[in-house]
Amino acid sequence: MVAILILLWALFSPWGAIRSYQLSKDLTQLEASKLELQDNNRQLKEEIDLLSNDPDYIEDIARKRHNLLKSNEIIYVFSNKNKSKQ
Known about the structure:
This protein is an all-alpha fold. Helices cover 70% and strands 0% of the residues. The chain has one domain. The termini are far apart.
C-alpha cells in the first residue's frame, strides 16, 4: 500500500514525472519560439540597416510599396486583354 502511494506521489506531485514531462514539452516549444523571434529580430535589424544606409533600398521601397515616381517619370498602363477571332 505504501509503495502505491509513493508511486502515485512520484507521478502526480508538483515535482512528479507528469509535471516534468509537461515542463519539458513547454521548454521545447519556448525554445522554438525563441529561435523564430531571434530570426525575426535579425531580419528587422538588417532592414533597419538598409533603411539607414542605403538610398537605393529606400527608393526601391518607395517605388514598389507606395507607387512613387521621380519628377520626370510617367507610368504607362497596358491592358493584357487578348481579342480572339471567332
